[in-house]
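During the reporting period the student researcher (J.K.) took over the structure-prediction task from the postdoctoral fellow and processed the backlog of single-chain submissions. One of the processed entries is reproduced below for the supervisory committee.
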Amino acid sequence: MEQSSGDGGDLAAKRPDLSPSGAGAGEDRLSALPEDILVLILLRLDTITEAARTSVLSRRGRRTWALLPELTFHSAPDHRHIREVLEATKAPALREILVFTKDDAPDSVAAWLPLAARRLSGTLLYHNHNTVEEYGYEEDDETEAAIPLPCFRNATAIDLDLGFMPLCCPSSGAFTRLTELCLERVRFQGTCELGDVVSWPRCPGLRKLRIRHAWGVARLTVRSESLLQMDLLRVNGLQQLNVDAPLLNLFLLRHCLTRDQPQPIANISAPLLITLVWMDVYDSSYVHLGNLGQLQQLGPNVIVVYGNHHSGHNREVLRFLQHFQIIHKLKIVLGYPQGDIGNFQYLMEDITRLPHVTFLTLLVMNEGHAFGASSFHVLRLCTGIRKLSLVLLPSCNSETQSTCPSGCICDESANWKIENLSLNCLREVEITDLSGAECEVAFLKQLFKWAGVLEKLRITFDYSVSKSKVKEVCQRLSSISRPETLIEFCMYRNSGRGSMDFLSLKDEGTGIHESQRKFRLSIKEFAA
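J.K. obtained the following structure tokens:
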């Protein structure tokens, strides 16, 4: 024991005294730490600015913080460090670079981006926060110098939100290891086409491609043997789209092709496609979807409930839907105009058929109007569904009225309340963001009549609904539902959407007791 104690004392004597009260008080103690320990300490700091401050405390910190494998830069004060850090000699490869800026300039980004390309062997995320509107500039304005995008040979994921700064694609070179690419709020300039960059062989391993809110891409041709997911949102001015991706399983196209330009052309070859969202113009004479025999999930363009017959929008949606006979999951969006609809016509009769569906998701943007007739029309066309998810979307403009005026035409089509409808396969219903409006309760009352074998109903109230309103709706629905139906009422715990509870009817004083009905009574918190 004495020998052991002596050894411990010898070892302690050999260690540097790092305590503030030790003999070395006031000296540089951080420099005495092993380099790998210093790196671990610096990795726990939020940004490079904080890591750089260790230079004041440690002589070795001045070179150690430049050797971190992960770098995070926040806002303008860090810009002076980006180039300095990336230029560090004898520096290891970087597995992650995160840059968050505000109102950045192209020349600032162009100064450090090539350095990042040389050192990165992982993920690059750059987000430039600003208030530039998507349509707040001239499309052909190329007076601002573009950011040259270098080839990131070893990067695995790139996510650039440029805040509509111009970007120029590289005319040569390969992104050899890149698997994910996201380009958002970008103005493309230069002669090199984006499709050439993201296709084989320049991106031989690309699996996920996302282009959102972009200008300057009139033609996009993607040929890839590796691509699995492709998401195009508001690629403004797109006139030609060609996709040849034999492994593609998810494709989203939203608001890219428009009628305000020469006739767009789209050719999609994706024989293994599982999910297709096509919220865009469609005409079989210029849109060719190829063989989609594996398709399981489909999302067409918004169906307009009230509008002008001459627009032909719903008839175009119908032509798209006629391309498909059987779909496992179908997502339908019903859109109502904001404000007064008195001068519009009811357009649901344009939709005459839907594919055979098992799981229907119905998103209703009713802007305060009654939606029973339009929803009934959809359900009448797919009576074989086994599961229904009804999502009541809030108003697009929070300042608009949430209820329609007295005598509004939205309630004139009342035949749906007396017509027969048999949903004999429907077993499960989920309703999200119920506000308790009279038109909602009226629809649920009819739904209980149509779904004679309903086993489970789950209702999530909108976060703005008061507890007293929730109690009232629970009582009304419990009186009209079947005893064999298991009903879950859920409400958000706070004013936000962070968490919610199952509502215990017994504890909330609704007069419902566990022995009477198959209600979910336990309270359970979970992420919304």
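The committee noted the following: Residues 297-396+415-493+518-527 form a domain with the Leucine-rich repeat, LRR (right-handed beta-alpha superhelix) fold (CATH 3.80.10).
J.K. will present the remaining backlog at the next meeting.
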